Amino acid sequence: MKVLVSDNLGEDGIRMFQEAAGIDVDVKTGLEPDALKEIIASYDALVIRSATKVTKDLLQAASKLKVVGRAGIGLDNVDIPEATQRGIVVMNTPTGNVITTAEHAIAMMLSLTRNIPTGTASLRQGRWEKKKLQGREIFNKTLGVIGFGKIGAIVADRARGLRMNVIIHDPFVTPEQIQKAGFESVDLDGLYERADYITVHVPKLKNTIGMLNKAAFEKMKPGVMIVNCARGGIVDESDLYEALESGRVAGAALDVFETEPPGKSPLVEHERVICTPHLGASTREAQTNVAVAVARQIIDFLTEGTVVNAVNMPSVTGEVLEKIGPYLTLADRMGCLQAQLVRGPIKEVVIEFCGDFKGIDLSPVSTAVLKGILTPVVKDDVNFVNAHVMAQQRGITVTETSSAESDYYVNQITVRAISTEMESVVSGTIFGKKDPRIVKIDKFRLEMIPEGHMALIQNIDKPGSIGEIGTTLGQHQINIGRMQVGQEEEGDRNIVFLTTDTPIPEDVVEKMRQLSLVKTVTPLEF
Ligand SMILES: NC(=O)c1ccc[n+]([C@@H]2O[C@H](COP(=O)([O-])OP(=O)(O)OC[C@H]3O[C@@H](n4cnc5c(N)ncnc54)[C@H](O)[C@@H]3O)[C@@H](O)[C@H]2O)c1
Ligand SMILES: O=C(O)[C@H](O)COP(=O)(O)O
Question: Ligand 2: which of 49, 92, 93 to mutate, most ligand atoms within 8 Å of CB?
């Protein structure tokens, strides 16, 4: 078995590969995409961090590749659907660097508030600027933490130790859980209004890109300081620059950038900005943790077939996987749909298996539902191994039922998701041998293919209603690839599912919401 390490990996991990029986390891870092493509066909495993781009093009050339292992968390650089399509397992190491990253956020906040990098640069230039570089204490100041996951929770805890008042915003963690951890749960506007320092610890998702933008800065306390050690783009860089210039934001500490490396940018050059080159996870300890974890996972996979921390496969044999594969995809998509339909934190999930599931192990299918529900919230952190634990940590109770009867199809899976605000019911089945279909949403029957960029529209069932939707999209050059109409079992409403070639921009969604026969529009991504 041949392993290629294409990004910098801690020595302990490399040594584990070298010492593993039956495994040959090559370390070739910094390769250009074409050079990597030329050699990839001879490798069974690829070990990466964030530099190597595992694109469709690369995967097409990787004829022997069985596994991609990420020493760290983020998988933005891996085409996961393409890897899944090719049966390549994608693994990460979700916990090895969280303490280190949280410590970096605290270090950045302290360095910023006490002008440490500016002081160093000024001294090096022979200046002694005590007055200009006067800082601010953090004692008794309010820290707003956005995202109370693994890293956000550690940051909150460390800041409490520094005697800060910590307030938390995370709409997917119940206020009770935040209170149980000893913190105050607040809404986003409340956090903006009160925080002297704001640190973001959310994944980069459709709805977190540009989360800290012009509108958000305007709601913040004048003189607030911003820390981003999560992902570039969560803080809008040009809006941040303007907010620094206007004085609304007093300083910013950035470890991550919209484009990495960011090159010469006015933001990086700004005198009240301090920066590090994505060093959040770069400590000896964290790099040892993730290198050892990824090496162990890959060696076990190559030698014993054990799958740990895979984001795209459960831990089952190839034979079982062949049978349950279509149901895993269906369950994952149903969970993902529920996560996008339900308002408020989900507290309860009920999974009902109805009809004939002979020969199918249903427990990975339930796991796939939970993974689907959590993916839009925590992205690469959830996998087939930790989905149940993560759901439990978030206070989500999971119940499974099964019955031999199914009302419409040979077999059908129904997922009920109950939040603090609503209940949503989605049913699905497999058409033919492997095609997932959503066949019911609440009271609407339909046959919808859950893939790509979609929009769910509720409208009044009258002539012209579908026409006005098509016209609005056409006016904005958005092509409808597929359209499905579902009818309410009783009542005068339709639901329409559109699959579009490109995502529908927010302003077009808003225009559709204003149409006379349209009730609601929910953009969906699969
Ligand atoms: N700088 C680095 O080197 C580095 C290292 C590791 C992780 N990271 C990044 O740090 C971030 C956090 O990582 P983690 O391991 O704590 O992730 P996590 O999945 O454990 O936690 C993320 C939290 O964000 C919450 N969330 C999702 N959407 C939200 C929203 N709209 N508003 C508020 N909260 C929301 C989720 O509920 C979850 O609790 C990720 O972006 C990760 O990629 C950066
Ligand atoms: O996602 C991660 O684990 C961090 O962002 C670290 O990325 P790196 O391994 O490229 O430093």
Answer: 49
